[in-house]
Input
Amino acid sequence: MKKIEAIIRKTKFEDVKDALLEIDIEWFSYYDVRGVGKSRQGRIYRGVVYDTSSIERVLLSIIVRDKNVEKTVAAIQQAAQTGEIGDGRIFIISVDDAVRIRTGERGDIALYNAEQEIL
Output
């Protein structure tokens, strides 16, 4: 199992969510986050200079079976990419075990219902 964490633009969240649903990734968590990037510039909007060193983003947290890692990463990358600086990052982290609290099932079966075994 792997944990995929993706930090993406807020404006691309709906596109990424739809892309994940298309590949049958139906469960994930997301959080509004703020971060500091490389770019240190002020933006001018209606004559007022805004500091852009603190950037608002969305952090997606998804646990998937090993066989679903590449298609999940590809879906996120394709949906979140604008080609501009600040598109975000994707991190892939190993997960040793998972436990479904309700049934006590362990391992990757704890991620999905038994009838979804075809995933």
